[in-house]
Amino acid sequence: MIRVSPATRFGLLMAGLAIGTKLLIVAYGLPFALNPDEPSILKEPFKLTYLYSQGVFAHPTNLFFWVVQGWYGLYFVLGRLVSHWNGSAAFLAALVGESPEILLWGRLLGVVASGCAVYVLSDVIVRTTTGWWHRLLMTSSIALNPVDLVSTAWLKFDGMALLLNAILIAAFVRYLDSDSPRDRQRLYLLAILAYSLRVDLIVFTIVVVLYDLARGRSFRPVLKASLIGATGYCLVTLLPVVLVYRLVAPQQAARAMTVASTFEVNILGRFPAARHSGRFSSWGAGGVCW
Predict the structure, then answer these.
(1) Is the overall model pTM greater than 0.90, yes or no?
(2) Nearest to 135 by CA among 236, 10, 9
């Protein structure tokens, strides 16, 4: 029999509270009203991958775009297992047509990521505070935060950014508690790798560096971990490939728009129903937005 600790049960309860609350609002506005960012976030990961497959590395990508493609890949696999999709054509038609179920599945990614963030932060609270009522109050204020409720239940970066911030906070607290070289190295690795999601997460690295400077710590022990984090960033974003591509063939960067147009012809042209649904315009050649 698996024994679950009180801290784990508490974290799961709070994560369930956060997820359950967001599930009440996750379908808001569908199928007519969308968040302004949702159509572009739905299309850009697939457009970028299509550009890469055509040898056009005009723009870098990010961690969230890879996660989005994996998330929709999971949806396709699950749909095939329960015979919801007759094949890839039916799934692509729903994706191109921005069907409500496709957008809803994308929003669920933010909901799940937010719930995981609450679980991580609840563990931090349990380890650093005493008294279950205090812990309940603190964690509930995170799980039911109004700003979080209206920002993460969409197909946006916010849920993933919250989760990554929670992981960084947990790593920082562990480093503060243990003062372990290994925990410090892990913290620097994660902090630099976090740039692959959003560059503005550099603020966290600045805080950590200032803390170590105040303590007179040498940065040589974390150099290797930082380089590993930077390598991970490069692998995720493909930034070095993009820089080389722009340097070696700057005139070819203009091909991005042409190839994006080809994307529309190859994908949309296969699904006339989606083309005339009035919801495909964000997949066209009007611009590849990064």
Answers:
(1) no
(2) 10
